[in-house]
Amino acid sequence: MNNFIENLPKAELHLHIEGSFEPSLMFKIAKRNNIEIPFKSVQEIEDAYKFSCLQDFLDIYYQGANVLQTEQDFYDLTYSYLQKCAAQNVRHTEIMFDPQTHTDRGILFETVINGISKACNAAKENFGVTSLLIMSYLRHLSEDDCFKTLEQSIPFKDKITAVGLDSSEKGNPPSKFAKVFEASVKEGYIPVAHAGEEGNADYVWEALDILKIKRIDHGNNSLQDAKLVQEIIKRDLALTVCPLSNTALQVVKDLKEHPLKKMLNLGLKVTINSDDPAFFGGQVNENYKQIQQALDLSKETLYQLAKNSFTYSFLDAETKNKYLAELETYYQNNK
Ligand code: HPA
Ligand code: ZN
What we know:
Blueprint: H1 2-7, E1 10-16, H2 23-32, H3 42-48, H4 54-65, H5 71-87, E2 90-97, H6 99-103, H7 109-127, E3 130-138, H8 143-153, E4 162-166, H9 178-186, E5 190-191, E6 193-195, H10 201-209, E7 215-218, H11 226-234, E8 238-241, H12 243-248, H13 260-266, E9 269-272, H14 277-280, H15 284-295, H16 299-311, H17 317-334
Parallel strand pairs: 1-2, 2-3, 3-4, 4-5, 6-7, 7-8, 8-9
The structure holds hypoxanthine and zinc ion.
Residues 14, 16, 166, 194, 217, 275 line the site of zinc ion.
């Protein structure tokens, strides 16, 4: 089964590039930039990665991102993640980045976007991995602050496909960002949002009805409301589920209790993703492997999950069909 997963062509639709920052690379970049980090060794960093909720994690995540200073740093971070994609048969990835995490400490928007997008171009050239970018607003900040980020992004619009909403969910409902999402859509960005990770079903409703999102990041708590589940199915919105993130942040107690099978049985379009792989114990293939074991998923289900990852990506129809055809051949030859 693990072999089937490793070779399965797939896409990753929920990945924070800052959350792919491995301790070893963090040390290397900190040293290069002469920045003190509050850890003496890779082991100390790994030991600190124990969380009891989303906020615990975010505090450490923002600390790690502080060492990123130059375009080269953002390039190295992104290229390192894309190399791992190639090794895992991830054909396509939709990468979230948090500009405010960097611009709020004096790094230019262009430093961030140029480093990330140059790495994406190089990875396409060197490994054939395609990618697109999702600019995520930090929901613990004000809507005005997000408007500034939207303005800064305009000269780089051709490099950005979608806008997202992440960071501390509770107390920061989607409705707080109604205007900036409306303006973002006017600029041509596709709206997505984290919803129903720690927040309740009413946050998912707001993300649907007010932000008009085209995909739901996490969405676990949608299951609280049968009407909402029906609405998500009616609108044909996929959920980007992140199993190891869910257990690391205690959204789900144990993988054996993960609602993924229930979601599929209800007719929800689910995809498997790593969220913040450097922090949550595994890349996307590890997420597939562990959830497969915990829920005893069949090859057919794994194929369906991979199929959803391409179908619900924001790729153009031609590229999407190319990947879907490759997946189909793989499944027919390996089922
Ligand atoms: N939830 C909210 N914000 C985040 C996450 C997450 O899982 N990862 C990085 N920022
Ligand atoms: Zn996330």
